[in-house]
Amino acid sequence: MVMSIIYFTQDALDAVADQMSRLILTGQAPASTDSGAFKTLACARLPAYMSCSSLFINAQTVASFADVNTAVPTLTFDGSGVVSNSWSYDPGSPGDIVVLQMIYMLPIVAVLGGFNPVTESANQTRLIVSTVVIKNEPSS
Fold first, then answer.
1. What's the CA gap between 135 and 47, in Å, rounded?
2. Helix or strand or coil: residue 36?
3. Which residues contact 111 (CB under 8 A, 6 or more apart)?
4. Alpha carbon distance 56, 42 (integer Å)
5. Number of domains in the chain
6. pLDDT digit string (tens) for 108-117?
7. Model's pTM, two decimal places?
8. Which domain covers residue 52, as residue numbers?
């Protein structure tokens, strides 16, 4: 059951990441000064069981495909267990290469049969990441 929820959540996050990367690719994403608006658009696409407060978005431009880093980010927490990472939001300009990472912390409430799917033990969550690398369309 737990694994089904994890796979379902990964699939849902991948679908949202694909939709959001399309907005960046086509120049329809909010400007780089408005990361909140981008997150609001992403949250509206999440399934009802996924909480917007557990979603983190990191969008960065890179100089070349060789510079792309798709590693799972390491989360840092403050004293009260809240994620304290600072995330980037740079949808780039026409022709730019953009790495979009959508990070979701799925709460895990049960461990069954000795299998522990928790990756962030401080707050009993499973870290789920969807990464999309795109090259923005050139301007017309």
1. 27
2. helix
3. 2, 117, 118
4. 10
5. 1
6. 876 655 566 6
7. 0.88
8. 2-66+84-135
